[in-house]
Amino acid sequence: MTDTGIEAAKRKAAIRAVEEHFSPDFSYVGIGSGTTIIYVVEAIKERSTNPNILFVPTGYQSRQVVTQAGLTPIAFDSLPEGKMLDVAFDGADEVDEDLNCIKGGGACLFQEKLVAERAKKFVCVADYRKDQPRLLSKWPTIPIEVAPISINTVLRSLRLLGSPNPHVRTGLLAKAGPLKTDQDFFIIDAPFPVLLTAKDTALGLGAGDGTDGKWEVERLSKEINQITGVLEVGLFCGLDGVQAEALRDQGLGKASVLGGQKPVAVYFGMQDGSVKVRTAKGGIN
């Protein structure tokens, strides 16, 4: 498929996602990073004339997209305490059958996760290339944001977890050194074997704890996050926003359970011009 065709697929997915999950009555909307999000902002602009909606971008690039569309961006830390985003739209580098995502190809994963967890629901928009049965099927590595001083420690720890060749991401010009995030941190890209879902481990397809070389998505995410020096890992897994809210309503959510990392729905723009929607309930249409 040509680049033009891929961009058309992204646009169609964005339009449908906005049609089904955005309302002009919203107060706060999260806006992620990447090329797909440009079409999301375009679709929002076409549907809304409400100047009072405030948009929370996940980085410099997305803030520029919001501003250029004539919408009003605010910093994440300007959100009133306890206020949830009505919705957050973002892309992904890869999505599996359970809606687990790899994000961070654009180096904004930390702020992307902050915004996703602060949203009542995270809606993912992507093209058909990102639709895979398991994570790391096509996308080669897991992005991890780390403090520069901890690079060697984190690289060693990742090798012990089974990553064969974790490496620090360089900028567009290698001679300029490692790429730096909006937090002035570095990104490590860590390859691993294809990741299992929770269903895979329940079926006995692997231990999921790395002892047999196979990791389950959520277990690996937690393990990497425990490494000193890691700010955040680009695996979006566990609860989604609706599930997290249900736990809070039942009094079961701990104080740390503000929201969910996983999307409630993913909109894939397909090669034939259609849009495939996968939802948290396992539906596909």
Residue ranges: pLDDT <50 for 5 or more in a row?
none
Largest sheet, if any? Answer: 7 strands, mixed
Q: What is the helical fraction, as a range of percent? A: 25-40%
Instruction: Give me the count of strands.
Output: 14
Distance between the termini: 22 Å
Order of helices and strands: HEHEHEEEEHEEHEEHHEEHEE
What is the residue-mean pLDDT, rounded to a whole number? 93
Task: Identify the overall geometry.
Answer: globular
Strand content of the residues, in percent?
Answer: 15-25%
Total of domains: 2
Which structural class do you get from the secondary structure elements?
alpha/beta
Number of alpha- plus pi-helical segments: 8
CATH class of the largest domain: Alpha Beta
CATH topology name of the largest domain, in short, is: Rossmann fold
> Taking Cα atoms only, what radius of gyration do you get, to the nearest Å?
18 Å
Physical arrangement of strands within the biggest beta sheet:
3-2-1-4-7-13-14
CATH architecture of the largest domain: 3-Layer(aba) Sandwich
A few lines on this structure:
The protein has 285 residues and is α/β, with parallel strands linked by helices. Helix content is 29%, strand content 18%.
Chain-wise SSE layout:
Blueprint: H1 3-21, E1 28-31, H2 36-47, E2 54-57, H3 60-68, E3 72-73, E4 87-90, E5 94-95, E6 101-102, H4 109-117, E7 122-127, E8 142-146, H5 151-161, E9 167-168, E10 186-190, H6 198-202, H7 217-225, E11 230-233, E12 235-236, H8 241-249, E13 265-269, E14 275-279
Parallel strand pairs: 1-2, 1-4, 2-3, 4-7, 7-13
Antiparallel strand pairs: 5-6, 6-12, 8-10, 8-11, 9-10, 13-14
Helix pairs in contact: 1-2
